[in-house]
Design goal:
Chain lengths: 376, 265
């Protein structure tokens, strides 16, 4: 295509009025003429009128229009009479439409120093707010649960069953994989140390106690936080976006009873079962590693039995119930408080997983210290 | 991209040939045959659930037809290679029912995206063009707002600004004025006409807003829910007065009964 580069010439007449001659093809692919040059020319000339002359203008597209809009805005700000009557058809209309509404001036927000995000006072306040909100949420759930027990709740049992299926059988695959591997890792870790003392048989004790008391429940909870907690946040966040939660509220149904209680109960019902399953597979995984070190299955089981105490198993189960409540609270709270856009739903899911994992670790540490103190 | 003034009705721009649309074995519309001329404002209308939006999705290539063809500038779109389809799509501007703006981007970033992808403009030039496109839809100064921070009508206009970012040849609208108040809806209609006239673009819109249809459309097609095919094709005002189908006349007269002898044949 044989096209001329775009340009302009500013011509002044005897009265000091300026006319702007547009030349060349103002289309994409050409280096457009810079408005900054025109602005400085106009600024130094202190003219009161700018007349457009497009007699030598070739083809044009949005590049020209963007330039003309800047001319118009500058002339408006500087009280210069901008006459753009001599424009090709189409361009005059577009300029008229583009300049019909005055530009909106966004309110100035005080800019925050970059490091303010790390202000310890603010971080502490956020953490306290977050915690108190979570406690408030747990309170609301407790009220909803008492209503459920009294038979006055709007919780649908169909939902509960569906969520049980999603949080239980559908999670078997991932729980199987993680728990076997964690059992193996535990056994490896212990074996390396115990071999030095010729005490490798105690790998069985290590795996049984470690899995039952700690790893079975914790690993299941972390997997479920990423899997089910995030799903709850995304579901409720999308419902918030679609105004479904508004609809539920205006029907006189508590969203907590209708949406949160079935999810939480399903998780509370399924997590202990998943934990027992994970315990079993974790011990099997440890057994595989023990087998590789020359411990026969019979020895492993015998040694494991001596380490097996009901209290270990019981502590794991208690943890799993507490973890289930924490995951459901983190997931549902983030979902219900989510903003109404797709970005906000993503944020809610992230927040749900992060909060859940923080809660899990803190709760786990607290429970361990508690049981240590009371000597179980 | 360069603007030319084209009088409506001179040249076929989009051609729908024997198009049949189905979800599995469920036929939505069959045997659709119509042309959209260059510079037309063309309306696809019909009752709820008749397949208007589905037809639009077929025209956009989001769904493949069961049989038949769609031609743009006498070139088959259905049988085009993915590369060619991509090229054809660059000449289109599309606004979706709820805007389709990316919520994680500001309005300026939304409009800049197609410019960054398909043009060689520098970022300063893109910023100027974005300012111009926003000014065109009456949103000058709203560059740094996120879609969630502006009203529904402003979102629709911002979506229009994104659709015209590349000075398209064809503008597609899915229910442009749904959910807008009468004044905003009228302003949007005016804007569509202005864009069509000054860009010389062809406009294809799905709508059942009668005032819009009569105000701005010069050609239309009516899709029937019961017979699952098109039963009206032509200027909407003429269809309202002279269509041989009572359903079409009723639709365009907002359900007020058509002459009795034709209602009960």
């Amino acid at each position: 295509m044989n096209s001329e580069p775009p340009g302009f010439e500013l011509v002044f007449d005897a009265d000091g009025n300026a006319s702007l001659l547009l030349t060349g093809d103002w289309v994409e692919g050409q280096k457009p003429a810079a408005f900054a040059i025109l602005r400085s020319d106009l600024y130094s000339s202190s003219t009161h009128q700018l007349v457009l002359d497009s007699s030598r203008l070739g083809s044009w597209d949005s590049t020209l229009m963007a330039f003309l809009l800047q001319c118009h805005n500058y002339c408006q700000d500087e009280d210069i009479d901008f006459q753009a009557t001599d424009l090709p058809t189409g361009a005059d209309k577009l300029l008229a439409v583009a300049t019909a509404v005055r530009a909106h001036i966004p309110p100035q927000e005080p800019s925050k120093p970059w490091l303010s995000a790390f202000n310890p006072a603010r971080l502490a306040k956020e953490a306290v707010d977050n915690l108190s909100e979570s406690l408030g949420f747990i309170g609301e759930v407790a009220i909803a649960l008492t209503k459920l027990v009294a038979g006055k709740s709007n919780t649908r049992m169909v939902d509960f069953k569906n969520f049980c299926y999603q949080a239980g059988p559908e999670a078997f695959g991932i729980i199987s994989l993680t728990s076997i591997l964690v059992g193996m890792i535990l056994a490896y870790l212990g074996a390396v140390q115990l071999l030095q003392f010729g005490a490798e048989i105690y790998v069985a004790d290590l795996v049984v106690i470690g899995t039952l008391r700690e790893m079975g429940a914790l690993m299941t909870a972390i997997v479920m936080a990423g899997r089910t907690g995030a799903a709850y946040a995304a579901q409720l966040g999308t419902m918030q976006t679609n105004e479904e939660i508004d609809a539920i509220t205006t029907m006189g149904i508590s969203p907590i009873e209708f949406l949160v209680v079935p999810r939480m109960l399903a998780l509370v019902a399924m997590m202990p079962l998943l934990t027992i399953y994970a315990d079993l597979l974790g011990i099997v995984g440890g057994g595989i590693v023990a087998g590789g070190m020359g411990i026969t299955p019979l020895q492993y089981i015998n040694q494991g039995e001596t380490a097996l105490q009901f209290s270990h198993f019981f502590i794991g189960l208690i943890k799993s119930v507490i973890f289930a409540v924490l995951i459901a609270v983190a997931g549902c709270r983030s979902g219900i408080n989510s903003g109404r856009s797709s970005a906000a739903v993503g944020q809610a899911a992230t927040e749900a997983v992060v909060t859940a994992i923080v809660y899990l670790i803190i709760a786990d540490a607290a429970i361990n210290i508690l049981f240590q103190q009371i000597g179980i | 991209m360069v603007t030319e003034n084209v009088s409506p009705g001179s040249e076929v721009h989009i051609e729908i040939r024997d198009l049949t649309m189905a979800y599995g074995s469920f036929v939505i519309q069959r045997d659709l045959n119509f042309n959209v001329n260059r510079g037309d404002i063309f309306v696809i209308m019909g009752g709820s659930g008749c397949g208007k939006s589905t037809l639009l999705k077929h025209m956009l290539g989001l769904i493949s037809p069961t049989s038949g063809d769609i031609l743009y500038n006498n070139e088959s779109f259905v049988n085009a290679s993915p590369d060619l389809r991509g090229k054809m799509r660059q000449c289109w501007g599309i606004t979706y029912q709820s805007g389709g703006l990316f919520s994680a981007m500001t309005l300026a970033e939304n409009i800049a995206l197609p410019l960054q992808l398909y043009t060689r403009f520098s970022s300063a030039e893109i910023a100027d063009i974005v300012a111009y496109k926003l000014a065109l839809v009456g949103l000058a100064g709203y560059q740094e707002y996120y879609p969630s921070e502006v009203s529904g009508g402003m979102r629709k206009r911002a979506a229009l600004a994104r659709a015209i970012a590349l000075d398209p040849e064809i503008l597609f609208f899915d229910e442009p004025s749904a959910g807008l108040d009468p004044i905003s809806s009228r302003l949007l209609d005016d804007l569509i006409v202005e864009m069509q006239e000054s860009l010389g673009a062809t406009v294809v819109m799905v709508t059942h807003e009668l005032p819009s249809i009569f105000d701005i459309a010069n050609n239309s097609v009516y899709l029937d829910t019961n017979t699952r095919t098109m039963i009206g094709y032509g200027n909407p005002a003429e269809l309202r007065d002279n269509s041989d189908q009572a359903v079409v006349r009723q639709f365009l007269a907002r359900g007020i009964a058509a002459p009795a002898e034709e209602q009960h044949p």
